[in-house]
Design a protein that fits this description.
The chain is α+β, with helices and mostly antiparallel strands. The chain has one domain. It has 1 helix and 3 strands, in the order αβββ.
Length: 81
């Protein structure tokens, strides 16, 4: 993804009211064939708004007072190769 493409995507999201959402990285989808060789910086392939369940400080799922799992809507970046 280029800076211009990311800028255009971000402008669309801001126009839709997502300007104050947190930015997260989906580590399960951040992969590259050269990681085993020490590659640490890989290109971003997508950035989209997603809702996901949150973890608590103890490593479990965060549960609200009403018993429901807590969720967060965020801009999620992936980097699949």
């Amino acid at each position: 993804m280029t800076i211009i493409k990311l800028k255009n995507e971000l402008e669309k999201l801001i126009a839709k009211g997502h300007g104050r959402k947190i930015v997260c990285v989906d580590k399960s989808k951040v992969t590259h064939a050269l990681e085993a060789d020490g590659c640490c910086i890989i290109p971003v392939t997508s950035a989209e708004i997603q809702t996901h369940e949150m973890m608590d400080d103890d490593g479990g799922w965060k549960v609200l007072a009403n018993g429901c799992n807590a969720t967060r809507t965020a801009l999620v970046i992936t980097a699949e190769c």
